[in-house]
């Protein structure tokens, strides 16, 4: 199997992020809430790149410090842990719920399918950010409620995809042949449909994960996601955003982290998707 | 009745049904979730008496159905009640802010729609060559960036470093148009970039599917120039999908406004909604939520109706 | 001697393919062919799919689909080298000197524009005719092509006319600019056989009356024999044989051409029925869920063990629906199906394992009939373990036996369907059906998607297997030649009813009912002048009435 360069880059960056997220407490140079220096100390990176303000000789912290003097690199590593944890769990929740219900609807057909599909249509007729805002105004915001909320909202999209893929496959003649043979429903779902539905679903999983990262970051940035003292990438942007107006780029670093993670996962998902279509091509 | 009118009427009634269903869903969600507006307002530390008093005052003890009917009736007649936090009438606030948001969205659409279509055309014209790859690559990047990141990068460069545009946007009514546009230039730029990527990807796909049809080959084999092929055969068939793409992206843009307004402290609907969520002002959240949803539902409905109207099979039945 | 209208020498065509997982690479499609088309003459280009026929046709218009490129040779049209012309000359050539009729008129017409506008477009934009002259000419062509309401049919949109009519409109489109050469690319392949003959007749008469030259591309030698003066046989991008139509049909030299000419000439003697029928279809009436229209009306047919019943009909005749009723996918509204001496429950869910096992099915598209994620071994092995509980070495042994029976080696066990050719895929499907040791196999258009020689191989295999396994076939097809090759008894279906039913010889001998007569007389025969004979016969009959 040949992995294209872009997918390889995507895979390695994604792995680095996940590694840092899992082993945050070993990787991070300081404690998450530890104040180590002055407010918004310049970054060593900026110094090395020559973008630091004039007069600075050297800087101690790779990314500088935040609005109350904590090491920004440490904050971003711990923030990444929160963001990636929430996004991953919500993606898993969204996928299990969405694909189980989607396959169920496709295979049962009839009123079960109708009822589920129409309800999903209704939920999807409201923009998910708006729906999330309305719900978040009425409940206590905790990591668990955020995960459940995001996972369930997003499962509507997975439902549509899973159902569409399963319906496409279940009208194929090899599924009909299995029915005529007298196979049980479990064989049809797990041996005939699932192996053919897996690649598009896995590619979609990457895209849903990115969406989750952007979504939780946006919510935290708006101040209604992860609540202090916990930190996540969106929240760090919010904490440091006032610095922007003084020319301090602290708020941009977590944003760069979000973007690079999203792009890397996208590259991997693109590759998986292409592999899927090429397999389909071989089938026709 | 002409079958196409029947289809349009069906889609219209579905849209209206969806509007009511969506409002019921939003209202119902705030009802069934633990806690209510009074609880949300007073927080966890509220005493039972305080809660009871506030509930009585807000009329929360009456049946949910009655309150839903009143709420919907209020929205339809323009009397939307008062906000919990500052007691100001919601209708008045929304009147002002909706205008400001529409102003922002209008200019963002005015710039992004033609640019997206143009880039889509360029990408198809140079399919799989460098212009297409550059455009596709940058849209991939743009899709991967959160709106607030684009906003802060632009602020950092254009407002702070270069000083070309303000980092806070405001458009008081007495401002001249050019001044207003200068004031909102960065928010427009952010919205344009956010929506451009999606719109351009979808336009590219829409034009591509038309250009790969057999009737385009027929036109080419008639010896028509590429301009005539596009004008006479590709364009008439591509208009509907493109309008569809534009409508869907306008709907997307309306939601993008929420974040952008917060970043630029722009006094529009988005900021109003986010503020209300932070203050747990459920009536304001519900009412602005349903307005956002309505715009979204209506734009999607228009997109569907355009596809119905432009389908020659439906327009000229057998 | 004047130079020919079209002269092609050493034409080489290649293409760049970009598989998603590998680097783009070049492949060769046409390896250098030479041919001429004289003014007013018709050259037939024949070959199976992938032979490069369409590619050559389009190349004469300096056109390549997708990544197709002309890599060598010359094409002279009206004395001008097409490949050396600048784009202006090429545009003047297309739509004025050379025009094109595609296989699918339905896709080739712009759905958003009226027919007339599209028919006259080339003539007007190339300034060959004024708009009103072009319109008058189009109406005249519509009339010549036997289109209904020639005066007004041009005002309709493409979807408002039938498939056969649209194909004739496409011919009008090609003839309207008074070209010197028309390229017909499988113009009748997508049509039913009774429609095909009308379009064929219209094309032939239009060619004769306008004196235009034509390049007629098809995979059907019997069709091309009716319209062309010369025939060129292509295989895998190379010319196999070239000659007059008479020589190719009556005295082919090359082995491949001989095989093409003698295709469908399998000799199968009808076996007389004996004993109780294996399958009795009695008074079956059926409709699809949610519709109010019976697609099957009071169907009665029998099939005896070890014999073949061919169910013939055109699209929409209900022949595939009958298969769905027998298999239990579509429970009948009325009537019963008796199988092996017992009544079959109408619903699939209520049938016993033996009912299911003894009644197997093979499909038209072998591609979609096999799970692309399963190996040949799994596909053939599953019925063995499902019905007979075979496992391990025993199962492997039986799989190998089955692969032997379908004339494929056991090297195929670990292959995936995507790695097989069309004929091999269909063979694997046959093996899967045989694995169940069935008494009856329903074959739904199993050879329609295959090239003629491959299809012949499949038919021969099915006949051989019938002798060995004593299995009965319910053979659904639209192709009379296939019926002749394989059937013992025949049911002709028309609009959901059995129009004619009986032993093969009886059904295929006069006196005929009207529909069977029309159907049988519409099937192109591999002989010169067949089309004229049929047309003359039909004229005589309608004149006699």
Characteristics:
heterotrimer, B: 318 residues, MetI-like fold, 2 domains, 14 helices, C: 545 residues, alpha/beta, Rossmann fold
Task: Give a topology summary.
The complex is a heterotrimer of chains A (284), B (318) and C (545).
Chain A: H1 5-22, H2 24-27, H3 44-49, H4 72-108, H5 110-124, H6 128-136, H7 143-170, H8 173-181, H9 185-222, H10 233-244, H11 252-283
Helix pairs in contact in A: 1-4, 1-11, 4-5, 4-7, 4-9, 4-10, 5-7, 6-7, 7-9, 9-10, 9-11, 10-11
Chain B: H1 3-32, H2 37-42, H3 48-58, H4 64-77, H5 90-125, H6 130-144, H7 147-161, H8 177-183, H9 185-211, H10 214-221, H11 226-263, H12 269-279, H13 282-310, H14 312-315
Helix pairs in contact in B: 1-13, 5-6, 5-9, 5-11, 6-9, 7-9, 7-11, 9-11, 10-11, 11-12, 11-13, 12-13
Chain C: E1 6-17, E2 25-37, E3 42-46, H1 53-59, E4 68-77, E5 80-81, H2 87-93, E6 98-101, H3 105-108, H4 115-125, H5 131-144, H6 163-175, E7 181-185, H7 193-210, E8 213-218, H8 221-227, E9 230-235, E10 238-244, H9 245-250, H10 255-262, E11 279-286, E12 296-303, E13 308-312, H11 319-327, E14 334-339, E15 342-343, H12 353-358, E16 359-362, H13 366-369, H14 376-388, H15 392-405, H16 422-435, E17 440-444, H17 452-469, E18 472-477, H18 480-486, E19 489-494, E20 497-503, H19 504-507, H20 514-522, H21 530-544
Parallel strand pairs in C: 3-8, 3-9, 6-7, 7-8, 13-18, 13-19, 16-17, 17-18
Antiparallel strand pairs in C: 1-2, 1-4, 4-5, 9-10, 11-12, 11-14, 14-15, 19-20
């Amino acid at each position: 199997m040949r992995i294209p360069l872009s997918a390889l880059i995507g895979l390695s960056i994604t792995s680095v992020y996940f590694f840092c997220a899992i082993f945050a407490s070993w990787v991070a140079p300081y404690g998450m809430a530890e104040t180590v220096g002055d407010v918004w100390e310049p970054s060593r990176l900026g110094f090395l790149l020559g973008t630091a303000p004039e007069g600075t000789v050297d800087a101690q912290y790779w990314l500088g410090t935040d609005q109350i003097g904590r090491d920004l690199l440490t904050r971003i590593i711990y923030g990444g842990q929160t963001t990636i944890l929430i996004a991953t769990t919500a993606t898993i929740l969204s996928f299990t719920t969405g694909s189980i219900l989607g396959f169920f609807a496709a295979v049962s057909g009839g009123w079960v399918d109708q009822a589920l599909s129409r309800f999903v249509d209704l939920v999807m007729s409201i923009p998910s950010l708006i729906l999330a805002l309305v719900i978040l105004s009425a409940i206590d915001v905790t990591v668990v409620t955020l995960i459940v909320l995001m996972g369930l909202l997003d499962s509507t999209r997975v439902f549509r995809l899973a159902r569409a893929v399963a319906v496409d496959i279940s009208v194929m003649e090899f599924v009909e042949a299995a029915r005529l043979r007298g196979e049980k429903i479990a064989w049809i779902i797990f041996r005939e449909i699932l192996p053919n539905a897996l690649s598009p679903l896995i590619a979609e999983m990457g895209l849903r994960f990115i969406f989750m990262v952007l979504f939780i970051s946006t919510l935290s940035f708006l101040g209604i996601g992860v609540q202090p003292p916990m930190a996540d990438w969106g929240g760090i942007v919010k904490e440091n955003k006032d610095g922007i107006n003084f020319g301090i780029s602290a708020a941009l670093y977590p944003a760069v982290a979000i973007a690079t993670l999203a792009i890397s996962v996208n590259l991997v998902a693109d590759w998986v998707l292409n592999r899927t279509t090429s397999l389909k091509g071989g089938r026709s | 009745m002409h079958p196409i009118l029947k289809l349009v009427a069906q889609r219209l009634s579905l849209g209206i049904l969806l509007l009511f269903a969506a409002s019921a869903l939003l209202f119902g969600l705030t009802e069934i979730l633990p806690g209510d507006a009074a609880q949300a307002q007073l927080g966890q530390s509220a005493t039972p008496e305080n809660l009871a008093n506030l509930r009585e005052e807000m009329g929360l003890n009456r049946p949910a159905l009655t309150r839903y009917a009143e709420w919907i009736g209020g929205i339809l007649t323009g009397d939307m009640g008062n906000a919990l936090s500052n007691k100001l009438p919601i209708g008045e606030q929304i009147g002002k802010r909706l205008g400001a948001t529409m102003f922002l969205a209008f200019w963002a659409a005015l710039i992004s729609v033609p640019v997206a279509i143009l880039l889509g055309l360029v990408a198809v014209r140079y399919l799989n060559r460098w212009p297409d790859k550059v455009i596709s690559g940058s849209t991939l990047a743009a899709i991967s960036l959160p709106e607030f990141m684009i906003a802060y990068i632009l602020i950092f460069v254009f407002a702070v470093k270069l000083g070309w545009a303000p980092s806070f946007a405001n458009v008081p009514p007495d401002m001249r148009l050019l001044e207003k546009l200068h004031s909102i230039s960065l928010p427009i730029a952010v919205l344009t970039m956010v929506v451009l990527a999606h719109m351009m990807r979808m336009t590219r796909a829409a034009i591509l599917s038309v250009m790969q049809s057999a009737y385009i080959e027929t036109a080419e084999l008639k010896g028509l120039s590429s301009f005539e092929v596009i004008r006479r055969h590709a364009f008439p068939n591509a208009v509907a999908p493109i309008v569809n793409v534009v409508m869907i992206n306008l709907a997307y843009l309306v939601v993008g406004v929420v974040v952008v307004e917060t970043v630029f402290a722009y006094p529009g609907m988005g900021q109003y909604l986010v503020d209300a969520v932070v203050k747990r002002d459920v009536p304001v959240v519900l009412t602005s939520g349903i307005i956002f949803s309505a715009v979204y539902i209506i734009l999607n409905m228009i997109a569907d109706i355009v596809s119905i109207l432009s389908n020659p099979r439906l327009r000229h039945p057998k | 001697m004047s130079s020919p209208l079209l002269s092609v020498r050493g034409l080489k065509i290649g293409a760049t393919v970009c598989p998603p997982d590998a680097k783009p690479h070049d492949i060769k499609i046409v390896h250098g062919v030479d041919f001429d088309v004289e003014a007013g003459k018709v050259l037939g280009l024949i070959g199976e799919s992938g032979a490069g026929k369409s590619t050559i046709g389009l190349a004469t218009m300096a056109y390549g689909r997708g990544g197709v490129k002309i890599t060598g040779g010359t094409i002279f049209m009206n004395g001008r080298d097409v490949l050396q012309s600048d784009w202006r000359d090429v545009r003047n050539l297309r739509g004025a000197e050379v025009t094109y009729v595609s296989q699918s008129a339905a896709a080739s017409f712009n759905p958003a524009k009226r027919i007339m506008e599209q028919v006259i477009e080339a003539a007007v934009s190339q300034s060959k005719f004024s708009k009103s002259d072009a319109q008058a000419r189009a109406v005249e062509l519509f009339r010549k092509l036997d289109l209904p309401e020639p005066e007004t049919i041009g005002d309709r949109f493409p979807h408002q006319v039938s498939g056969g009519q649209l194909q004739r409109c496409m011919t009008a489109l090609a003839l309207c600019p008074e070209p010197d050469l028309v390229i017909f690319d499988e113009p009748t392949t997508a049509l039913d056989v009774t429609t095909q003959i009308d379009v064929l007749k219209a094309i032939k008469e239009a060619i004769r009356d306008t004196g235009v030259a034509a390049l007629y591309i098809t995979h059907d030698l019997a069709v091309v024999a009716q319209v062309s003066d010369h025939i060129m046989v292509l295989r895998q991008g190379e010319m196999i044989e070239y000659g007059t139509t008479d020589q190719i049909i009556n005295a082919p030299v090359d082995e491949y051409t001989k095989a093409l000419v003698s295709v469908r000439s399998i000799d199968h003697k009808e076996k007389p029925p004996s004993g109780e029928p294996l399958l009795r279809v009695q008074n079956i009436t059926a409709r699809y869920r949610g519709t109010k229209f019976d697609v099957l009306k009071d169907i009665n047919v029998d099939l005896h063990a070890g014999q073949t019943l061919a169910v013939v009909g055109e699209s929409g005749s209900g022949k595939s629906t009958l298969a769905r009723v027998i298999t239990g996918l579509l429970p009948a509204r009325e009537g019963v199906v008796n199988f092996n001496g017992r009544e079959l429950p109408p619903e699939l869910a209520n049938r016993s394992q033996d009912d299911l096992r003894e009644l197997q099915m093979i499909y038209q598209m072998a591609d979609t009939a096999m799970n692309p994620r399963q190996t040949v071994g799994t596909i053939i092995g599953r019925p063995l373990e499902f019905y007979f509980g075979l496992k391990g070495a025993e199962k492997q042994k039986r799989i190998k036996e089955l692969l032997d029976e379908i004339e494929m080696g056991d090297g195929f066990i670990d292959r995936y369907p995507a790695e097989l050719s069309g004929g091999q895929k269909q063979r694997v499907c046959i093996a899967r059906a045989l694995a169940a040791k069935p008494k009856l196999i329903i074959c739904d258009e199993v050879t329609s998607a295959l090239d003629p020689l491959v299809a012949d191989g499949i038919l021969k295999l099915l006949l051989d297997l019938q002798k060995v396994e004593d299995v009965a076939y319910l053979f659904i097809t639209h192709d009379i030649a296939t019926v002749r090759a394989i059937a013992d008894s025949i049911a002709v279906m028309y609009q959901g009813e059995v129009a004619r039913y009986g032993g093969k010889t009886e059904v295929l001998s006069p006196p005929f009912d009207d529909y069977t007569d029309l159907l049988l007389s519409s099937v192109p025969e591999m002989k010169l002048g067949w089309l004229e004979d049929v047309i003359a016969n039909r004229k005589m009959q309608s004149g006699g009435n």
